[in-house]
């Protein structure tokens, strides 16, 4: 939840403030990785755990490899701030989809 506001802070920063905001963003972004792995361990049956981790890393690394060219295209066509603003918007949209699905399942 802290990453979305940080995306906007990074997008509107420059100079040393940009370096500081980006450093804080990376600190929290890298902190998400152990949480993801813990959730997979907690939410998957033991017999499916290796498949779940394999799928997670295939999807993460596969989708992650598209990030640099996509960010470059966005930066070139729309400007640097839009890279982080669109990232924040995608994060909000993803969270909304998860919450909508959770509400539908429990209701």
3D architecture notes:
The protein has 107 residues and is mostly helical. It is 87% helix and 0% strand. The chain has five helices and no strands. Helix 4 crosses helix 5. The chain is elongated.
Strand and helix map with partners:
Layout: H1 3-11, H2 15-43, H3 49-64, H4 67-78, H5 80-106
Name the features.
107 residues, elongated, mainly alpha, 0% strand, 5 helices, 87% helix
**Count of helices?**
5
Order of helical and strand elements: HHHHH
From the helix content, strand content and strand pairing, which structural class follows? mainly alpha
Task: Estimate the global geometry from the Cα principal axes.
Answer: elongated
User: Low-confidence runs (pLDDT<50, min 5 residues)?
Assistant: none
Q: Report the count of strand segments.
A: 0
Mean pLDDT: 88
Q: How much of the polypeptide forms β-strand, as a percent range?
A: under 5%
Radius of gyration: 16 Å
- Major β-sheet, in short? none
The N- to C-terminal Cα distance equals 24 Å
**Level of helix content?**
over 70%
